[in-house]
Amino acid sequence: MIKYLGSKRTLVPRIGQTVRGLPVASACDLFAGTTRVSQGLRRLGLHVVANDLASYSEAFGQAYVERSAQGRIPELLERLRAAQPPRGYVTETFCETARYFRPENGMRIDGIRAAIDKLDLDAVERGTLLTALLEAADRVDSTVGVQMAYLKEWAPRAWQPLELREPALCPGPPGQVTRLDANELAHGLDDIDLAYIDPPYNQHSYYSNYHAWETIVRGDAPEHYGTACKRLDCRTTKSRYNSRRESWSALTELIAALPTPWLIVSFSDEGFHDPLELRELLAERGHVGFAEVDSKRYVGAKIGIHNPRGEKVGTVGRLRNRELLFVVGPDRSAIESALA
C-alpha cells in the first residue's frame, strides 16, 4: 500500500480485535482512503462497503474490496510492462516542473496510464491495474509521504526502475465500493450493522495532499499551480471536515444520520475536537467505550519543518500521536468484552 498520512496500518489489528467481539456481519468504511481498514474488515468475513470521494480510493477499493479472483490481471500487467514510455503530462509536470519522480519513471507512468485506457476492461480490472500503477509510482517517489513538496535531493528509492506488481487478493467475501459524500451515503445504510468513521479532523486536505494520485487515476491533464504543481481544483475542492468552523456540525449530522446500530470512531488527538465533547455526542447513540493507541506521527514530522529552499526553519512539537478508538452500540457488555 502507498505511503499515506492518516493511514490506519498500525491501528487495523486493534480495530479487528474490537470488531470480532461485536455481533456484526457487515460494515461501511465511510472515509476509506487507501482501504486499509476496509481490507481488515473483509478479512474478518464481513461484507464491506468502502466509500470515499477520492478517485484513487475507488481504485484501491476495486482492487482490494471488490476483487475476488486473479482473472486476467497477470496477463494484463505483462502487456502494460511493454508499454512505450512517452513524455507526457506526468513527466512534464511531476518530473520536470516538480520533482516527485525521476523523468525515466515519469515516462513509464505516462506510457502505462495511456495503455490502460486502450484496454477493454471491466471496472474491477481497471481499478486493479490503476492500483498496481499507483503502488509502483509510490515505491519510486521522492517525497516524505505527502505531495505538498518533494525532497531537495532525490530519495534513494527514486533511482529504482518503476516495477508493476499485482495487488494481492484480499481474503473474505467481495464487498462494494462507492464514491459518495459520506453524509449523503449515511442515510442509505439501513442494512449495514457497523459504520467505521475516520473523517479528516484538521485542516489538511487529502485531496491536496495526494493530488498526483488523483491526476494519475483520472488520466487528465489539469492546470496546476505552485511549486507542488497541485491541481487547480485543489483550491475549490473543499471538505467541511477540514474547516474548524464547520467540521463539528458535519460530524454531528453524520452521527445523527447513520442508521447502523454499531459505530467505531477513530479520533486523533491532533484533531479539532475535544475528546470529551466527542464522547458526549456519541453517547446520544448508545453505550460508549474507548481505547487509546499510541502511534508515531508521519515521517515528515521526524524530518522537521523546512522552507521552500530546503532549509530547516522550525522544530516539531512532538513525534507521537494518541489515537482514540470509540465503540458505540446498544449492548454495554459487548462493548466491554470487545475492548478487553
Shape: globular
Rg value:
20 Å
Alpha-carbon distance between the termini?
A: 30 Å
Given this structure, which CATH class of the largest domain is correct? Alpha Beta
Strand order of the largest sheet: 3-2-1-4-7-11-8
**Could you tell me the number of beta strands?**
11
Indicate the low-confidence ranges by residue numbers. none
Second rung of CATH, namely the architecture of the largest domain: 3-Layer(aba) Sandwich
Q: CATH superfamily of the largest domain, please?
A: Vaccinia Virus protein VP39
Structural class: alpha/beta
Strand content: 15-25%
Largest sheet: 7 strands, mixed
CATH topology of the largest domain: Rossmann fold
SSE run: HEHEHHHHHEHEHHEEHEHEHEEEH
Helix-strand layout with pairing:
Blueprint: H1 12-20, E1 26-29, H2 36-43, E2 47-51, H3 55-66, H4 73-81, H5 89-97, H6 103-118, H7 123-138, E3 176-178, H8 182-185, E4 194-197, H9 206-209, H10 211-218, E5 224-225, E6 230-231, H11 247-257, E7 262-268, H12 275-283, E8 287-296, H13 299-303, E9 305-306, E10 312-314, E11 320-329, H14 332-339
Parallel strand pairs: 1-2, 1-4, 2-3, 4-7
Antiparallel strand pairs: 5-6, 7-11, 8-11, 9-10
Question: What this model shows, in words?
Answer:
The chain has 14 helices and 11 strands. The chain is an alpha/beta fold. The protein folds into 2 domains: 174 residues, Rossmann fold (3-Layer(aba) Sandwich), CATH 3.40.50; 125 residues, no CATH class. The strands form 3 sheets. A 7-stranded mixed β-sheet has the order 3-2-1-4-7-11-8. The longest helix has 16 residues. The protein is globular and about 60 Å long. The protein starts with 11 loop residues before the first helix and ends with a helix.
